[in-house]
C-alpha cells in the first residue's frame, strides 16, 4: 500500500513538473510574440500605434477573442478576411469601401468581377466584430481599423498544434502591431475602377512589379505579400487558363494533372487550395511550391520564373523567419495606402452602409483629440 501511494505521489509530482515546464514554454512563446511597433516603417500622419489606448483599450482583445471562436467553426474564414483586406486596400486605399453594399448610386465594389468570390460570411464576421467593439466602447472604432486588425489576427490564428517533437510547438503566422486611426470612406469605387486596380491572377512579374511600384511597394514587398496565398482557396476559372487549351510549360506536370481532375473544364465551379503543402497553416511552404513549379496562378509562379524575384522566393523558402519579417513590413506599408484620417470620412455605425448623417459625433471628436494628444 505504501509503495503504491509513493508511486502515485511521484507520478503526480512529475505531472506537475511537466505542466510547469509547458506553462513556462507557453509564456516564453507569448513573450517572444509580444507585438512591438515597427519603428523602421514610417507612419502616415494621423495614424498611431496607440490610437485607441484611452477610447477603446480592449479593442484588440475583443476582436481576437471573437475570431478564435469564428475560426474554430470555419478556419477558411481566416483567408477570406485577409483577402478582403487586400482587396480593400488596393482600391481607393484602406478605408473599408469594399464593405459597403451597393446603393441607388450604383453597384458596390463587391459586384466587380474580382470580388464576386469574396466570401459573404466574412463580411458578416466583420460587421459582427464592429457590433461587439461598439457595444464595449461606443462608436469610436472605424470599420477599416477593425478590418486591419482582423486581417492581422487571421494570419496569427491560422495555427496548428504540432505533435511532432521534431518541429516547433506552434505553426502559424507572425503577430505584429497594427497602426490605427483609419476612418471609413463615404463612397465605394465603381466596378470598373475596382477591376482596374486589383492585380489579376494572370498578371506576370513585370506587370506586378510596376503595379506595386505605383503604390510605393517594392519588389520584396510584392513577393512577401504574395505569401498570403499560403492559406485559402481559389476558384477554377482563376487559373484554368494555365491548363486549357494548352498547359503552361512552367507548371509541374503531376501538379497540372491533379488540377485537371479538380477542374475538368475551364469554367468548373470547383475550388483548389492555394498551397498544397500546408493549406491551413500560415508558413513559407507557398514559396516551396513555387520552387517546385506548383504555384497556382501565373502571378504566383512567375515570381520564381522571373530573375528579378526568384532570389527573394528562394530566400523565403529557406528562411521562414525572414519571410515573416518582410510580410509584416509589407502588411504595415500596404495597410497605410491612401488612408483617411482626422476629420476625413466617418466612423460607420454599420460597416456595410454609410451613416445616415455625415457629421462627426461627440465620441468621434473625443477620440480624435485623444489620439492627437498622444502623437
TrEMBL record:
<comment type="similarity">
    <text>Belongs to the peroxidase family. Classical plant (class III) peroxidase subfamily.</text>
</comment>
<keyword id="KW-0964">Secreted</keyword>
<keyword id="KW-1015">Disulfide bond</keyword>
<keyword id="KW-0732">Signal</keyword>
<comment type="similarity">
    <text>Belongs to the peroxidase family. Ascorbate peroxidase subfamily.</text>
</comment>
<keyword id="KW-0106">Calcium</keyword>
<keyword id="KW-0479">Metal-binding</keyword>
<protein>
    <recommendedName>
        <fullName>Peroxidase</fullName>
        <ecNumber>1.11.1.7</ecNumber>
    </recommendedName>
</protein>
<dbReference type="InterPro" id="IPR033905">
    <property type="entry name" value="Secretory_peroxidase"/>
</dbReference>
<dbReference type="InterPro" id="IPR019793">
    <property type="entry name" value="Peroxidases_heam-ligand_BS"/>
</dbReference>
<keyword id="KW-0575">Peroxidase</keyword>
<dbReference type="InterPro" id="IPR002016">
    <property type="entry name" value="Haem_peroxidase"/>
</dbReference>
<keyword id="KW-0408">Iron</keyword>
<comment type="function">
    <text>Removal of H(2)O(2), oxidation of toxic reductants, biosynthesis and degradation of lignin, suberization, auxin catabolism, response to environmental stresses such as wounding, pathogen attack and oxidative stress. These functions might be dependent on each isozyme/isoform in each plant tissue.</text>
</comment>
<dbReference type="InterPro" id="IPR019794">
    <property type="entry name" value="Peroxidases_AS"/>
</dbReference>
<keyword id="KW-0560">Oxidoreductase</keyword>
<dbReference type="Pfam" id="PF00141">
    <property type="entry name" value="peroxidase"/>
</dbReference>
<feature type="signal peptide">
    <location>
        <begin position="1"/>
        <end position="31"/>
    </location>
</feature>
<dbReference type="InterPro" id="IPR000823">
    <property type="entry name" value="Peroxidase_pln"/>
</dbReference>
<feature type="domain" description="Plant heme peroxidase family profile">
    <location>
        <begin position="46"/>
        <end position="355"/>
    </location>
</feature>
<keyword id="KW-0349">Heme</keyword>
<keyword id="KW-0376">Hydrogen peroxide</keyword>
<dbReference type="InterPro" id="IPR010255">
    <property type="entry name" value="Haem_peroxidase_sf"/>
</dbReference>
Amino acid at each position: 500500500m505504501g509503495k503504491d501511494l509513493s508511486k502515485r505521489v511521484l507520478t503526480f509530482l512529475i505531472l506537475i513538473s511537466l505542466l510547469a515546464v509547458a506553462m513556462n514554454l507557453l509564456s516564453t512563446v507569448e513573450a517572444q510574440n509580444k507585438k512591438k511597433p515597427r519603428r523602421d516603417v514610417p507612419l502616415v500622419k494621423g495614424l498611431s500605434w496607440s490610437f485607441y489606448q484611452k477610447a477603446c483599450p480592449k479593442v484588440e482583445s475583443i476582436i481576437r477573442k471573437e475570431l478564435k471562436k469564428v475560426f474554430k467553426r470555419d478556419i477558411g474564414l481566416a483567408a477570406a478576411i485577409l483577402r478582403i483586406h487586400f482587396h480593400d486596400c488596393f482600391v481607393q486605399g484602406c478605408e473599408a469601401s469594399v464593405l459597403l453594399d451597393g446603393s441607388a448610386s450604383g453597384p458596390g465594389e463587391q459586384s466587380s468581377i474580382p470580388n464576386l468570390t469574396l466570401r459573404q460570411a466574412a463580411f458578416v464576421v466583420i460587421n459582427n466584430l464592429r457590433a461587439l467593439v461598439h457595444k464595449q466602447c461606443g462608436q469610436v472604432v472605424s470599420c477599416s481599423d477593425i478590418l486591419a486588425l482582423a486581417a492581422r489576427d487571421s494570419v496569427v490564428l491560422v495555427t496548428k498544434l504540432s505533435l511532432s517533437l521534431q518541429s516547433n510547438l506552434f505553426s502559424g503566422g507572425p503577430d505584429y502591431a497594427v497602426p490605427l486611426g483609419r476612418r471609413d470612406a463615404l463612397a465605394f469605387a465603381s466596378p470598373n475602377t475596382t477591376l482596374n486596380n486589383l492585380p489579376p491572377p494572370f498578371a506576370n512579374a513585370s506587370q506586378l512589379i510596376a503595379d506595386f511600384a505605383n503604390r510605393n511597394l517594392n519588389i520584396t514587398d510584392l513577393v512577401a505579400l504574395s505569401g498570403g496565398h499560403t492559406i485559402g482557396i481559389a476558384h477554377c476559372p482563376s487559373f484554368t487558363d494555365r491548363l486549357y487549351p494548352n498547359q503552361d510549360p512552367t507548371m509541374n506536370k503531376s501538379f497540372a494533372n491533379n488540377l485537371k481532375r479538380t477542374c475538368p473544364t475551364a469554367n468548373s465551379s470547383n475550388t483548389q487550395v492555394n498551397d498544397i503543402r500546408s493549406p491551413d497553416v500560415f508558413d513559407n511552404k507557398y514559396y516551396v511550391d513555387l520552387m517546385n513549379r506548383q504555384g497556382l496562378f501565373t502571378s504566383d509562379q512567375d515570381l520564381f520564373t522571373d530573375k528579378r524575384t526568384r532570389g527573394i522566393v528562394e530566400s523565403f523558402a529557406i528562411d521562414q523567419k525572414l519571410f515573416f519579417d518582410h510580410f509584416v513590413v509589407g502588411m504595415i506599408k500596404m495597410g497605410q495606402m491612401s488612408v483617411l484620417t482626422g476629420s476625413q470620412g466617418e466612423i460607420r455605425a454599420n460597416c456595410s452602409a454609410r451613416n445616415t448623417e455625415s457629421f462627426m459625433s461627440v465620441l468621434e471628436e473625443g477620440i480624435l483629440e485623444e489620439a492627437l494628444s498622444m502623437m
